[in-house]
Design brief:
about 325 residues, alpha/beta, TIM Barrel, 11 helices
């Protein structure tokens, strides 16, 4: 268990991703969804990550249903997400409230632990992106109203977009959490300048967040599945797509995964997924690592790897020294 920044919440180091990348909570069968969540709870997993956009609301519905069936809401922390389109910024508070009410209805809740902006944070206005001024102004003001009304406990952002704009919001002291892109293919959020093959430099964002007491939720720890070193996808998983940022691709991350697989063999690991997961768990300042599961087999693997503990410092250094990371 790790503190989620300054929120006062404790969350499991290994989290449960309920999005389309893994797909279990959007496309899986109800019985398997229940089995997986029940197993996760038994293993000590307490953080569940969902969003309105995952399966067009199905993820929230399924998460809410399973946690009710298991009587587990008092044992978990659940975060969901929303978007504010650029044309809605003038009434951001209204857009946020409407989205929140829909999420609460699907989850079957009167309040939620964590509500997070899903838009990119950008230097200049763009389609689907919001500037730091827009986030720190009308968006944060609207979220604060929801918190004051008792509908949410805390709020944060998805820390994607332009690095300078994202950093400004994270260092503002106005948000509680940041969902940070960090993995063995692009570890720059943990080590500035280590960007892999042409990826975005997140300039040590995890350390910046930690310094300000912002809880870091690690997203894409397996680079959307590329760090499994195979393009094969589970039927529940989303298809192979682009990476989460400009300048790289699934194929480029897959190439890095081949070098990671060689290192995993040298370290005596089961494979590159173990090495990649234990690598992100080793970074100081990471509160929880969100893995997207396709089935209970993948969940069991993640539990097994997490229980082996974070990579020791010498193995972290060996990974960072891989020529593929440049």
């Amino acid at each position: 268990m790790r503190p989620l920044g300054k929120t006062g919440l404790m969350v499991s180091a290994l989290g449960f991703g309920c999005g389309a990348v893994g797909g279990l909570m959007t496309k899986g069968q109800p019985a398997e969804q229940r089995r997986a969540v029940e197993r996760a709870l038994a293993a000590g997993i307490t953080y569940f990550d969902t969003a309105r956009s995952y399966g067009d609301g199905r993820s929230e519905e399924n998460v809410g249903r399973v946690l009710r069936e298991l009587g587990a809401w008092d044992r978990v922390v659940v975060g969901t997400k929303f978007r504010v389109e650029p044309h809605e910024v003038a009434d951001a508070a209204g857009a946020i409230r409407r989205s929140l009410e829909g999420s609460l209805r699907r989850l079957g809740r009167e309040w939620i632990h964590l509500f997070q902006l899903h838009n990119r944070v950008v230097d200049r206005p763009s389609e689907g992106g919001l500037t730091a001024d827009q986030v720190l102004g009308p968006v944060v003001d609207g979220l604060a109203r929801c918190r004051d009304d008792g509908l949410i406990r805390h709020f944060g952002i998805t820390a994607m977009g332009d690095t300078a704009a994202v950093t400004r919001v994270v260092e503002s002291s106005r948000i509680a959490t940041a969902q940070v892109y960090f993995n063995a293919a692009n570890p720059s959020a943990g080590w500035a300048g280590r960007v892999g093959r042409g990826g975005q430099d997140f300039d040590g964002l995890i350390d910046r967040a930690r310094a300000g007491g912002v809880g870091v939720i690690n997203i894409r720890p397996l680079a959307a599945g590329a760090l499994s070193a195979t393009a094969e996808r589970h039927p529940n998983a989303s298809g192979i797509g682009g990476a989460a940022m400009a300048g790289t691709s699934f194929e480029a991350d897959l190439a890095i995964a081949q070098a990671l697989a060689d290192l995993a063999g040298e370290l005596g690991h089961e494979g590159p997924v173990e090495t990649a997961l234990r690598f992100v768990l080793a970074k100081d300042g990471v509160s929880t690592v969100i893995v997207g599961y396709s089935d209970t087999v993948q969940l069991e693997q993640a539990i097994r790897y997490a229980e082996r503990g974070p990579l020791p410092p010498d193995e972290v250094e060996r990974l960072l020294a891989l020529p593929a990371l440049g």
